[in-house]
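Sanity check. The docking grid for fe (ii) ion depends on where the pocket ends up, so I'm generating a full predicted complex first rather than guessing from homology. Inputs follow.
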Amino acid sequence: MTKLTAIICLTLCTLFAKYTATAQTIFELRKLPYDHNALEPYIDKETMQIHHGKHHQGYVNNLNKAIAGTELEKLSLEELLGRVSKLPEAIRNNAGGHYNHSLFWEILTPKKDTKLSARFEKAISETFTNLDSLKRLMNQKGSAQFGSGWVWLIVNENKKLEVCASPNQDNPLMDIAPIKGKPILGIDVWEHAYYLKYQNKRADYLSAIWNVVNWEEVSKHYEKLVPKGIFDDWQTMKDFHKVMAQTFHPSEEGNLQPIKTRSQEMLKKAEALKTATIPKEFDRREVRKTIDQLIDGSKKLDKLINSKKADDKAISKSLSELHDVFHKIVGLCSPEEHH
Ligand SMILES: [Fe+2]
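Predicted complex below; grid placement will be based on this.
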């Protein structure tokens, strides 16, 4: 080998090594947002050191190794999870392990008495009765999960809260998950999460962990996934909208039965808007004027339906006009419109 060939070879080898090194650091382990001993006495320092520094680091390393040099390097973690059924087992386990633990560290905190947002608390009450029942349900599912796994609080496809468990490092974002949704709180029930302090007593670990759950952070996840609707603080308008949605959409498909039976109910909901308090942010002359149009339109529609000469075409037209008036109010109240 000439000196020149040796130099070229060395340069190529260095470049290749560099490329390989870059390719293998696609995903990284984030630092813990608190000290290893910060969650004591509920989770001990040694468990945190091994759990974060060894187990989680292992998932990150193995995930990077599994996707290195493939097209999969271009995908986000969520994209990988969404197609695990078509990917090697190593990606399912390690992408799951990386995602699950990243969320886990985020929703724990040494801060005491973190507060739930009002809307999140309301959603919990509506779905599980209260926060204690939610904790009980998660503890029960977590205890019942055979072997290693996770217990989740998710926002499902209908934007509702739901509790489920999954084996190993699976999670509800995976296409193979029997219950799908976006996790907002996940509790690790692998033995590596509790064995040093709690040995085989998973139930004790599950009871203790609620002392270090960061409800502010979980609330943030919820608020992001289920943003506040524009009429959430205007119950009378929500009531009107409900009847409008349940009658107008069938009418678009040629079914006028709902509006024919509910026109009087809709008129009552419209009239209630006249007397109920309008939230300050929407209380403007133009909004009030459009509410009057909504009441007039509801009256006209109800009268038409009750008249002997009611013809389907006319009913459909009148309902569609009323729907336009409602959407005029939506427009007037939308964030970009009201100042
Ligand atoms: Fe873990």
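Relevant for the grid: The two ends are 77 Å apart (CA to CA).
Also worth noting: The first helix runs from residue 3 to 23.
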